[in-house]
Structure formats: structure tokens, C-alpha cells
Amino acid sequence: MSVVEAETEGLARTLKDLTAGAAGGIAQVLIAYIHAAADIVKVRLQTSSEYSNALDCARKIFKNEGATAFYKGTLTPLVGIGACVSIQFGAFHEARRRFEALNSKTSPSTLSYTQYYLAGAFAGISNSLISGPIEHVRIRLQTQPHGSQRLYTGPLDCVRKLSSHEGVLRGLYRGELVTVMREAQAYGCWFLSFEYLMNADARRNGIRREEVGSAKVALYGGLAGEALWLGSYPFDVVKSKMQSDGFGEGRRYVGMRDCFRQTYVREGWRGFWKGIGPTLLRAMPVSAGTFAV
């Protein structure tokens, strides 16, 4: 195969991966709309101490803010999630191909599970450039006061005001370091878990991966979603706290390390797992839909 042909084939594979990722992102959005309530409950539990549990949080949101409050901040991920999932899958498969090429020089090109994790971590880090500000805006909209006291009229107004406080990097991109750490760990666990379950099924039944049934693919995708959150949730809690924190005199956390420290001092280890219940409830169908498309 000539160099030109190899490059053309590589480009075609990359475009295919990006398209598959976009389709998965659309499926994720549609399912996520059904489970939007779980997401805002998760964020409220992570950033506030006024709720005793997830049901209490949901009840108070409905009572005080109405049913539409459960969809606060959903426009931002709706616009960006297709791009995010495209980047995740595109970056993962590109890293996987690089590992396969490296392995082929000394051994069979099959990836080790460490390499699957690293490829997933690379996908997460690549994705964080977009997911960081998208999630920051979503969290601001989900946690702002209700009614006439609200701080932002919508996503664009939120972006403008966040950027005006301390600039784009320290304002809009607040919490980016912990976002990178969360994304690397989360998607390392996500892709590693899915690949392990798929390979184990194929090996157990003596079939090729392509022959694994769609129902099982969805199941393994859902289980991978659970692994994603179980492996990265403390980082997500700190990210939510930092991205809902005030500016100027109203700021509580100096940085990521200070946020970890204060959370542990005030709430103990349990503080890093607030909201995990609704998160896991939402993760299974969302992740299953992404891989099943």
C-alpha cells in the first residue's frame, strides 16, 4: 500500500469514527433529556447542603421552581455533546491505531488493557477543551437563584459574564485542571471497561467481536457508563464545587487542592460521593445508547 493510499485510508477511518461519535452523541442527548432531572439533582446535591437526599432535592426543585427547572442548562450540552462524543471516539480510535502500529513492530497488534485505558484517557483529555466550558455554563445555569434573582438570562449571557469576571481562562475555563483529570480517568475507565467486556464475551463464546449481539453491546456500554462514574466521581464533585463557586469576595475555594481539602474537612469522604445515586441511574441508559448506535 502506497503512502498516499495509507493516508487516505487513515483519514476515512478517522471521519468514520467522528461520524459514529456524533451519532452516539445525538442518541446520548435524546436519552439525557429524559434523565435531565437526575443531572440537576446530582449537581444540586454536590454543591449544596440543603437537601437530605435525591428525592428531597427533586421534590424541592419541583415545588419551588416548577417542572421546567429540571431542564435548566440542557441547551448548552445539547449544542455541544455531538462534538464532544465525536472527539472522544475519534481520539480514542486514533490512539488505538497508534498503539496497534507500535505493537506490530514487536508483537501482535492487539492492545493491552493498559493501552486501552491510555487511549481512553487521551480521548478524555482531548475532549476536555470543549467539555470544560460547556459544563461550567451548564452548572452555573443549574445552580443560579430562581426567578427575579437569577444571574444569567441564558447560555450566551452566562458565557459573556463568566469571561468578563477574570478573563476566558480563569473565568470561563475555571476548574479546567480538575476537568482534565476527571475526563482522563473517566474515559480511561469507560473505554477500558467496554473493551474488556466485549473481548471477554467474544472469547467466552468463541466468536468475533463484530458478532456480539446488539443487546449485549448496549448492556456492556451501560456497564461501562457505571464504571466511568465510579472511577471519576470525586473529581466531578470538586469540579462542580469550583464551577459553582463565587467570584471576588464570594469565592470559597482558592483552587483545586483547596477544594479537595475543604470538602474532606467539612464532609469527610462521603462528601466526594454526594449525588452518586442519580448519577448511576442516569449513566446506564445514556452510555448504553451511545455504544449501541
Provide structural commentary:
With 293 residues, the protein is mainly alpha-helical. Helix content is 76%, strand content 0%. It is built from ten helices and no strands. Helix 1 crosses helix 10, helix 2 packs across helix 3 and helix 2 packs antiparallel against helix 10.
In brief:
With 293 residues, the protein is mostly helical. It has 10 helices and no strands.
Annotate the secondary structure layout.
Blueprint: H1 3-34, H2 36-47, H3 54-65, H4 75-103, H5 113-143, H6 155-172, H7 176-205, H8 214-243, H9 256-267, H10 276-292
If you average the pLDDT, what whole number results?
A: 88
- Look at the helices and sheets and give the structural class: mainly alpha
Tell me what portion of residues adopts beta-strand conformation.
under 5%
Radius of gyration: 20 Å
Described by strand count, sense and barrel closure, the largest sheet is: none
Helix segment tally: 10
Task: Work out the helicity level.
Answer: over 70%
Alpha-carbon distance between the two ends: 32 Å
The number of strands is 0
Contiguous runs where pLDDT drops below 50 for at least 5 residues: none
Helix-strand pattern, N to C? HHHHHHHHHH
Tell me, what's the shape? globular
